[in-house]
Design goal:
The complex is a heterodimer of chains A (about 110) and B (about 110). With about 110 residues, chain A is an all-beta fold. In chain A, about 0% of the residues lie in helices and about 55% in strands. Helices cover about 0% and strands about 50% of the residues of chain B. Classes of the chains: A mainly beta (about 110), B mainly beta (about 110).
Amino acid sequence: GIQVEQSPPDLILQEGANSTLRCNFSDSVNNLQWFHQNPWGQLINLFYIPSGTKQNGRLSATTVATERYSLLYISSSQTTDSGVYFCAGGTSGGYQKVTFGIGTKLQVIP
Amino acid sequence: NAGVTQTPKFQVLKTGQSMTLQCAQDMNHNSMYWYRQDPGMGLRLIYYSASEGTTDKGEVPNGYNVSRLNKREFSLRLESAAPSQTSVYFCASIPSGGLWTEAFFGQGTRLTVV
């Protein structure tokens, strides 16, 4: 199956700083998503982004499908951005073929 | 509020006990999933239900059974709990088509087996 590698595993930021999180896939995916798990455990969709670039407020994501990686950008970080960021990817036609990375744990300090 | 509801939120079991984790969604989604989350391992798929009346094994199905009771509800049963099943369990649903364009997760069930 597809292997998903996320980096860095841990990140500590000063409030207001910018960061880039990376997700590499071992094979082509056409079903790629970023999630945020807040400190209370809730998982929230951020982006569905199998290719191209999307932006939502201070967050944006870019996927280069041909090179099998995706980037999540967080600008002007806030303490509420703390938590774990997961990427997940899969191939079409397979409901079960969505593999999660192990996540990047982000802590934003005031 | 629309979404995915899991019950219970916390549970402690003794080895060998059984229990059922409940999941219900009110978004008329076709597909539902059960995942477990363990430290350093991300989320791993236990079982999924592509549509009402169908269920299939995921990556780590051993020790679990599921029931898609109706379109809204998808339950996960541990027949004889083991300490290795200590984990946080998440239920998720997506509208249809197998693409996670709009996946919604429940708040999780933290299970401890002693």
